[in-house]
Structure prediction request, 377 residues.
Amino acid sequence: LPPPPPAPTAYKLSSALTIAVDAPGVTMSNDTVVVPMYNVVRNVATVQAAPVIFFEKNSTRPLTSSSPAQALQQNILTALRQYTRSHPTSRITIIGASAADELPLIARERVLWTTRQLGLDPNRIEVRTIALPKPKYPTLEDEQRYVRFEIDGVGKVIKVDSIVSVLQSSAGIDVRVVHVLECEAGPCQQQILTTTNGRNIELQGTDVFRSFRINPSDLPDTTATVEIVANASATDRTGQKAQSSKQLFVRATVARAIDSVSNLTPIADVGGEKSDVVVLGYFGFDGDEFTSTNADGIQRVREAIASGRSVTLIPQTDDLGSEAHNAQLRSRRAQAGRLLLGADASSVTIDLKVSSEDVGDSPMRRMARRSVLARIR
Prediction:
């Protein structure tokens, strides 16, 4: 009998994939690569504001918006925490209100929500609730859904940081897809298919090292994730096949953050000249008695008057009511500001003209207009 044929030669064929991110500061969390990608510049405006938070109807959810006036109130609680840390003996009174078209119990729920969010020692907190009657103007009902704060029993103006704009920059993320192929029966044919979030992408390069770039638009913020899936296949000259696959998630984080801080005067148009503008205090609707005052600002203005600098009082009103009525109201508010400063009529000037026609329809913007500003030159 003839001898049996020789056993077929076994040729080794193996495929292995690696996905790597080329960026400094990369960290790995489970199957997710976290890449410092964003350079962020935040424009932070410091506003002299009355601490009050407005809520949605029949809700403990604060009003939210991207506009600076409404975004401001989102930082009220942070500002109050900072104030209480720097004034450890101060007490906070939380006053919750319900509007005429709401259930009165919602005022208590707003106080409870605020107390939990504020996180202060309960011994430093007093609480009150109030059910408000139907207002003179229906548009004022959204102003009745509030929680406001008194500090040591009185209304005080505090400094509140509000992010008015955010600039993010990034050059993208470079990703390498490495295919390590061991093929004894060459030449071998190989193919690599790669997707990001299910979308096919074209790899650059040949042989072992291939690459592509994740664009900033694929990772618009730090909550977004890109899923990378790579599949490789190889066939040698004997027809033997090998396959491999790799999956990786990529998430971006902030590489560097810079705050650009400026002082912002709410709503007022105070002229283009170089000047220092201070909020003396705020009023309730149609009121000419201050509901909150700015102790630091009052002291600054008094020192300016004493040093002979020019001080102009700018009273403001919202756009409800007739212009004739509001003109008289501005005059009374200006006198209230002068008396608050303890200044005689000859030491300050008063600007009674309407500072801006644009009041807006949010409770925060209307409240900001019920004020007296002092312009120091």
Observations:
- Helices lie at 68-73, 76-86, 105-118, 295-306, 323-341, 363-369.
- Residues 266-274 have pLDDT under 50 and may be disordered.
- The longest strand covers residues 241-264.
- Residues 323-341 form the longest helix (19 residues).
